[in-house]
Amino acid sequence: MFTINFSTINIWRVLILVPLLQLLVESEARSLRDKPERADEEKSSADYLQNYAEHMKSYMNFSVAPCDNFYEYACGNYPRAKADHFSVHRRNNINDLMFTLNDITVKLLGRTHLAETVNVSKELVVAKRFYNACLAAELVQFSAADPAYLSLIRSSGGFPAVDGASWNVSKFSWVNMSSHLTNYGANGLIHEELVARFPFEPLFKPPQLGFDHIVQTINIASNDSRAFRLNDKRMRGYLQAYNVPEDRIIEVINGVFAFWRDALKVTEEFNDACESLSFEEAEDEFPKLRSYYAIAWNGVNVTEDNNCYTLFAELDKVCTQHPEAVANYLAMQLLYVFDAKLTEAKYQQDYCAKTVRETMSFLIDKLYMAELFSEEKRLEVSAMVLELRKSVRKSLEEAEWLDTESRVEALLKESTLKSRVGSLKDEALTDRLIREIASLDIVEDSFATTNINLARHSIKTDRYSSLHFEEMANDTLPQSTYLGMQVQAAYYIIDNSINVMAGILQPPVYHRAWPQSLKFGTLGYIVGHELTHGFDTTSSLFDSKGNIRFWWTKETQRAFDIRTFCFIEQYSDYTIPEIGLSINGVKTKDENIADNGGLRQAFAAYHSHMKQQLEDPEQQSVSEQLPGLDLKPDQLFFLGFAQLFCSDFQEEHYYKHLTDVHTIDKYRVLGAISNSDDFFQAYNCPVGSGMRPENKTCRLW
């Protein structure tokens, strides 16, 4: 007998929930009603492939041998060759797809006739009004001192740095102010996430402190550190906007850093699930948290997550010692969420398109799916998923460490797995979410007010199923399953399904004109990764029907743990020289296993697919090489995989990403490649080379 706390389980096993590469958008974004003639299509395809090969080559560092360092070989020039876009987050090839989707969003905003056809004209007008207001606003120089922002701050808890003596400490509550911040998507001291399982209740995680650079005890020990300087600059800018005197600015910023240093002594003693690492007695209740449910949820859906009670109780003691600093910090966090954080005006259109796409997602999605997601694409990807499932099934049949009882359960789970390509449909739910847009108030003479209204609307949309759970059946799926225009592939434990969303089906993940070797190295790997999640430590707690049942035997569990330890040791040995910290091999183990399993399954599926094509007399011969790129098909397969993770990190991005369950991009590539016998053979890598230091490799599937 055992119980499971869903706050500690990631029931959406997601490879990437990030948006992809701006490359020949027109070739993918062409209306399905405007297809070229066959000859033109073939010429266009040939030109596209030639151009795409040049694009892939632009990321590569040919001075490095692939067997020495495959990541550097595949991605060494990415930081210099990447397209000119602005992002406060790390840049990587997959993340860059969001810029493609932003361009498509702009085009869809002009599809008036399409909107009429799918009955969203009124909502599209609102979206265009916001987009135009955003373009016309001054975003590079953020208007932090706008009366609308100050009014919101004061109604949430106040801004002592600005309000001075009129701020009343006796009326201040860090819980109440943090609760108000969640209504606008700001990160206060209550870090809220929604469980991807009915009734979609909120759960808590330890807060991440800081603005442009999350702070930890090690990175703010010195005032000369990058973490200190970036956060100092951000706070200084907000305070200067309110004409706070310099001596007062120094005092306020020093106060916030003092609060952070004390708060870190608490937060760093808890893991991601708010489980205490040193506090012996767990709190059964934290009464002050009741106001959170009243402020953020109107008392609805109050299935309380109690893992964080001890954390909040200890954090409350720190906040009591620094009430003014806490209020100043939370006030500036509210400003931060409204700040576009742009460095130049040339990035403003992209920012405005991104804001529309993310906050009015179901409206844009309806247009996107009607205009751009073809049945041909769905059928091809569905066939690839089926090929990957065959590969996974063969691995389950051949894995010598699975005993008979566990193997039967695993094969049953695979055979009952559901496959979805594009998105699910729930017209009633998505139409309700779209109709909410019509009531969004666009204030013509106040972009700040409009910005606030939009942020509130966005959070209400995200919480819609949570707030209305009583109207829904127990088997209702998360809202995200009905949203095709997102760059996501995921395994969903609760209904044992693999989900490949429409938005991910663009370069560098997929293009219909690519050779199969490239498609399987990119999309095939992603699908394989997600399928592998159906048979990892978390999924062992759920059977083929999504019921909570531990279906591994003790013998299988023991064998799994032995093989898993190999991955833990391997990835823990990767040190990030830029910050002097190492990968957490325990925290990232399931994702690392999925990377390794997914790559192997994809390669096997590719060769199985090509064998079937050769045996089909009606199948036309198609080149498996990319013109202009002198690589054999198997080599192109691995290059496509590696270039998914070409990236450009700043110091702050490493600290942020180390809190994630996925390994840093570079080491995802190096880790999986160095365990791949298929890669060694494709590139003829000898034992003793950088990618193959010894014969021993880690393998589970």
UniProtKB/TrEMBL annotation:
It comes from the Eukaryota. Its main location: membrane. Belongs to the peptidase M13 family. It is found in: Cell membrane. This is Neprilysin-4-like. Residues 66-422 form the Peptidase M13 N-terminal domain. InterPro entries: MetalloPept_cat_dom_sf, Peptidase_M13, Peptidase_M13_C, Peptidase_M13_dom_2, Peptidase_M13_N. Keywords: Hydrolase, Metal-binding, Metalloprotease, Protease, Signal, Zinc. Its cofactor is Zn(2+). One of its GO terms (biological process) is protein processing. GO terms for molecular function: metal ion binding; metalloendopeptidase activity. The keyword Glycoprotein does not apply. It is a single-pass type II membrane protein. It comes from Drosophila kikkawai. Residues 1-29 form the signal peptide. The gene is LOC108083647.
